[in-house]
Design goal:
FBA_I, fructose-bisphosphate aldolase, two-stranded antiparallel ribbon, 8-stranded mixed sheet
Length: 359
């Protein structure tokens, strides 16, 4: 599976799932295929609830709520127990802490998610670190001990995983070294996951920071994707990417969602209404699409819910109502059936862009 930042993901077509993974048995291939199909079944996408403790601290600070383990548990419990999300959410990505937290009545979150027919995912990377020999570029750490961690996560209920590598567009970046290093890291991560029956989400994220135009982003994205497929052959024909192109956040001219070119459909997705509108436009595009184009959203699903909650127990239902509304909208959008009502939600249509974003 290809995860494109906090934006979209694409899944393989039913008829083109893995048939040439030399290190996997027929049973393993079928297990991976079944998991992938379940996560992004028609009308479904991913809730990315894998924010690190540090990232949650920033979110909670915006609503004047203390960043404690209990508050993190309470907030995520509201999301996971919301009504009517089964037709909208196929999978939920957890942070390590969340995988072992429980509901008020003592049920582990993974058990709750599985009982509701959704697939449990886990963030397995350990964050970005500086890449020596580059001009401020990064690689992602976490390969050490990943084999053992994946084995344990599988036992504890995780069936898919996420690993994020970051590349930034400037006049001199991304460098060949950064592209190759991050592709190598993603390939090693993906192979380890598959050995344990875990579907890997491969995420070489091209950050939106900068003043580059759409053409520059398209060129960089295609270059990164091409090298990633070379480094991990299963991506070549078995798993593929929907190239996500966007101009930099400092560019003021963005393509219209009604533009007929698929590469121009998703402009800046920094506000949740635009995220839904553009996802919908991509699914209405008359071009041939061998992939299901769906969503993997964190802030776009949570921003209004978080504001509605405000850290107050009495606002639990309001929080869930906002989350359900966003989930339903994006479920419609990934089927090309979304119609905007103009409702900006509790977050007021505020920008979701975070410069130099890290988890």
């Amino acid at each position: 599976m290809a995860h494109l930042g906090d934006r979209m993901c694409a899944r393989p077509d039913q008829d083109t799932m893995p048939h040439s993974f030399p290190f996997l048995s027929t049973e393993q291939k079928k297990e991976l295929s079944d998991i992938a199909q379940k996560i992004v079944a028609p009308g479904k996408g991913i809730l990315a609830a894998d924010e690190s403790t540090g990232s949650v601290a920033k979110r909670f600070q915006s609503i004047n709520t203390e960043n404690t383990e209990e508050n993190r548990r309470l907030y995520r419990q509201l999301l996971f127990t919301a009504d009517k999300i089964e037709p909208c959410i196929g999978g939920v990505i957890f942070f390590h802490e969340t995988l072992y937290q429980k509901t008020d009545d003592g049920k582990l979150f993974p058990e709750l998610i599985k009982e509701r027919g959704m697939v449990v995912g886990i963030k397995v990377d350990k964050g970005v670190v500086p890449l020596a020999g580059t001009n401020g570029e990064t690689t992602t750490q976490g390969l050490d001990g990943l084999y053992e961690r994946c084995a344990q996560y599988k036992k504890d209920g995780a069936d898919f995983a996420k690993w994020r590598c970051v590349l930034k567009i400037t006049d001199t970046t991304p460098s060949e070294l950064a592209i190759k290093e991050n592709a190598n890291v993603l390939a090693r991560y993906a192979s380890i996951c598959q050995m344990h029956g875990i579907v890997p989400i491969v995420e070489p994220e091209i950050l939106p920071d900068g003043d580059h135009d759409l053409k520059r982003c398209q060129y960089v994205t295609e270059k990164v994707m091409d090298y990633s497929k070379k480094r991990w052959p299963p991506l070549n024909g078995q798993f593929s990417y929907l190239e996500f192109q966007q101009p930099g956040d400092q560019k003021h001219t963005t393509p219209s969602p009604s533009h007929p070119s698929l590469s121009n459909l998703p402009p800046l997705l920094f506000k949740w209404p635009e995220a839904s509108i553009n996802l919908n436009a991509m699914n209405q595009c008359p071009l041939h699409r061998p992939w299901a184009i769906t969503f993997s959203y964190g802030r776009a699903l949570q921003a209004s819910a978080l504001k509605a909650w405000g850290g107050k127990p009495e606002n639990g239902k309001a929080c869930q109502d906002e989350f359900i509304k966003r989930a339903l909208n994006n479920s419609k959008a990934c089927q090309g059936k979304y119609v905007s009502t103009g409702d900006k939600g509790a977050a007021g249509g505020e920008s979701l862009f975070v410069a130099n974003h890290s988890y």
